[in-house]
Design goal:
Helix content: 25-40%
Number of strands: 23
Strand order of the largest sheet: 13-14-15-16-18-17
Shape: globular
Number of helices: 18
Strand content: 15-25%
Oligomer: single chain
Distance between the termini: 96 Å
Length: 570
């Protein structure tokens, strides 16, 4: 079974200068981080007019790799590297020296590449470069951030040069035997592509020897700067589509339906909680530790459905990466397990759906208490770069102690897995039709605002006992635009609810995500007290928008008066 393997070879020289202010670094993990994080290569070129140029380049080149490997596995590469570079930029930009004009003395270019699965992620700022040699052809993959001033190139972007940092991101597909060429301007300004390619093509030399030859050739060509070259060869790639989930799909057998008293790999069934069309849940006793758990197994109906099975396994992965009192815990399956199932926290309680049946007209305070806990769980997913995508009353449990637990992670979007195409393609939107955010149906895009929309549907339904939008013409109908969602005032159902609450839900349920609350915290705030800005803006709207029904009634009365007057004149 093939895994990602990279070969590195680099060389750096101070050249004609007294000090080498270039830096490069590379690392390929040998543990589980190889799958979750991948390999990394970096190059940086400190700006020589700064007193701490060497420190800037070395800090960025090495610290970037160290920090990247410590970011959560659930984060995308883009999110991880963005956070790291913003932090490095803040640090470098803050290194002022008032004896040298008061400007930052730690400014450097930075170019890095993350090799994850079969994808490459390039992050770049400055005039260091990354090029790719593929099928004996060289292609430059970055753009120099320079401007021509006084007959010479001057950096327009670099780490530490400004409080704000604008970074280029490029994603490429990796192919076996690709060679990625990272160079500082002391190399590529003086050595042409033809000369460099001739050296790279000499496979009798190791990558380190070839990098050394490239630097020395640039020196002979007249380079008067520091010089650095780092070569990275993609020696092998993971087997196609053979990520961890797929390997488990190939290895684990579908378990049979279970009855009370039966055992599955050390778990004895105490009670059948439910047998559904998509899965079954059992209350089980672990005979090894004597504790009670929930045991969830997939349905035999989906034994040949890779999207469903991948979602089932992803649910376990998500549950193990989130530890929060409002999120159902999922525990690690035994390493020697032969069947597909997951072991989860057993929750004594009832679904939010049952709670709604038992409490048909709850107070705002009751609803807010439950929703605040639900939002707390969803914010954890957001911080982990995940989207639940199936928030509905059936997926929220209330324990016998009135604790809220978010359950069912089979539809969770894990961006860190999606970015490397590690998940089977979804042909249709996942989730429940009445709770799915419009943008997901229309564009297949979803983020935390999509979950926010679903939460608002749940709030509306808890208070009103109905859904906020008129049902579509027929089942499985997909609207063509946002205008097809028409919000119905919650006060049509409950006159006792205040206007400010109606305005809050109308905003949270706006079909277009750009018009919703930006954050969960804003929604909770507006559910807690009147948003005066929204109330004032509502008062400024024309009557046709504020109360179209009142306007219609008024026009009808006016029309009747006119008719009466005209009749009396005849």
């Amino acid at each position: 079974m093939e895994k990602l393997n990279l070969i590195f070879g680099g060389f750096s020289s101070k050249g004609a200068k007294s000090e080498n202010q270039d830096a490069f670094a590379a690392f390929l993990p040998k543990d589980h981080n190889l799958d979750s994080k991948g390999g990394v290569a970096t190059i940086a070129d400190g700006v020589s007019v700064c007193t701490k140029a060497r420190e800037a380049s070395n800090t960025c080149a090495t610290t970037f790799i160290e920090n990247y490997l410590q970011t959560p596995e659930t984060w995308t590469v883009t999110r991880s590297v963005s956070q790291i570079l913003l932090g490095l930029n803040r640090w470098c930009h803050g290194q002022h020296d008032y004896e040298h004009g008061g400007h930052s003395q730690m400014i450097t270019t930075f170019t890095g590449m993350v090799f994850k699965s079969a994808s490459g992620f390039i992050v770049h700022v400055g005039d260091t470069r990354i090029g790719r040699v593929q099928n004996n052809q060289y292609e430059l993959l970055t753009t120099d951030h320079v401007s021509r001033q006084g007959g010479k190139d001057v950096l327009s972007r670099a780490v530490g040069i400004d409080a704000k940092l604008e970074v280029d991101f490029v994603t490429v597909d990796l192919q076996q035997h690709d060679i990625y060429v990272l160079t500082s301007d002391g190399v590529h300004t003086f050595l042409n592509t033809k000369a460099m390619m001739k050296i790279i093509a000499n496979t009798e030399l190791s990558l380190e020897q070839r990098a050394t030859e490239i630097v020395e050739a640039a020196i002979r060509a007249g380079s008067d700067d520091n010089l650095t070259c780092l070569l990275v060869e993609v020696a092998s790639l993971p087997d196609a589509n053979l990520d961890e989930h797929t390997r488990q799909l190939n290895r684990l057998a579908m378990p049979p339906a279970l009855d009370v008293g039966m055992k599955l790999e050390g778990y004895r069934v105490i009670e059948t909680v439910f047998n559904g069309t998509r899965s079954s849940l059992y209350k089980v006793l672990n005979e090894q530790d004597g504790k009670v758990y929930g045991l969830k197994i997939p349905s035999q109906h989906f034994a040949d459905d890779p999207v469903y099975l991948s979602g089932f396994l992803r649910e376990e992965w998500v549950g193990q990466h989130i530890k929060h009192p409002n999120v159902m815990a999922i525990y690690k399956r035994p390493d020697d397990a032969k069947f597909m199932y997951h072991v989860c926290e057993y929750i004594e309680g009832k679904t939010l759906r049952q709670w709604m049946i038992d409490n048909p007209k709850p107070s705002i305070e009751q609803v807010r208490s439950i929703i605040t806990s639900l939002v707390s769980a969803l914010r954890v997913l957001q911080r982990k770069d995940m989207v639940h995508r199936d928030v509905k009353p059936e997926n929220v449990m209330l324990t016998k102690h009135n604790e809220v637990k978010l359950i069912d992670f089979g539809t969770v979007l894990v961006n860190a897995l999606a970015e490397t195409n590690s998940l089977p393609a979804e042909q249709v939107a996942v989730g429940s039709v009445h709770y799915i955010a419009p943008e997901y149906l229309l564009t297949q895009h979803s983020d935390h605002k999509s979950d926010l929309f679903s939460v608002a549907v749940v709030v509306y339904e808890m208070l009103a006992g109905d859904l906020p939008f008129k049902p579509f013409a027929y089942k499985d109908y997909i609207p063509s635009n946002y205008d097809e969602w028409q919000y119905q005032s919650i006060r049509n159902h409950r006159k006792d609810l205040p206007l400010w609450l109606d305005l809050t839900l109308e905003k949270a349920l706006n079909p277009s995500p750009k018009h919703r609350h930006d954050a969960f915290s804003e929604l909770i705030m507006d559910l807690s007290k009147p948003n005066q800005t929204m109330i004032v803006n509502q008062g400024k709207q024309p009557l046709i928008k504020r109360n179209p029904l009142a306007l219609y009634k008024g026009l009808c009365v006016l029309q009747l008066v006119i008719i009466v007057i005209l009749v009396s004149m005849v």
